Each structure stands twice: as C-alpha cells, then as structure tokens.
Fold this protein.
Amino acid sequence: MEKKSLNQLVSECRTLIQDELGERHLYHRVFIVADVDADFILRENKLANHAKMNYTNYERAIVEHYGVELKGWPFELLPVRNPSRIGGRKSVQLLINTLINETCKWMKLTEEELADRITSNHARQAAGETIYKPRKTRTKKTVEKSAAIVESSSESDENEGDDGDENEGHDGDNE
C-alpha cells in the first residue's frame, strides 16, 4: 500500500467534506419524489457543486446559511477548521477515518436546533469569542494624481522643436 503525503491526506479530507456538503445541503433543498435517487436529481439540476465549504466562517456560511453541520468532528480536533490546520499526519488520518466510516458526517439541523445554534453563536460572539470572523477589507486602489499639467496634443504640436527649457542661457538667477 502506497503511503500518502500529508498534502494528499489533507486534499482527501477536503474532498470528502466538500462532496458530502454538496450532496447533503442540496438533498434537503430539492424536492424529491419518493423512490427517486437524490444524487441523480442533483446532477440533473446541475446543483451538486453549489454549496462551497467555508472553514473560516463555518458557523455563519455553512451552519447558519444551509442549516447543516458536521456532526462527529473528532473532539480533539475542534473547532471545525481547514484540514491543513488541524495538525500532523496522525490528526489528518483520524479525520479521514471518521469521514470514511461516517462517524463524522453532514447532518441537517432541525429548525429548533438551528435557532438554538444561532442564538448560541450570537451569545458567544457577544462574550468575546470569535465566532464570526470579519471579512478582510478591500485595499483601496487609489492612484495619486500628478500635480503636473499634461499638455493637449494641439499644444504640444505648437511647441514642437522647443525643448521646454525657457531659462536657456541663464545661470539660474531670476531676473
């Protein structure tokens, strides 16, 4: 058996999490007729890749927005975060194992669970815990304007042949 690099393991984790998120989220958002395969409906409606995992603002962008959560995330790896930031090979392998054997999986929250989660998140944020990470502010792309006056093309035609040094022949004194 080929031993995978840490980067390959992290990539595998991300793929497992993202693939399941797309399926779980949309399964609950699409009306499904009995005995119809949910994956088929998702593919037919081209919705399978609609939901994108957001590790930085997991609570707001995923839990609160879609009403789903990753239940069973290994306690020692909490909070839910990007697999590249959970530690070394042993931690990443633990997460992969929980995802593969489905002890960690996406679950739809009930309306009551979602309301409780939102209330809890707001209380934790108010108490000083960083639940909602602020978005980065956009750097302003201001270009300083030059104080120099730009000549129009008609003016530059008139002055053609003039090298622009009006004080030629003077040694720098103002007369």
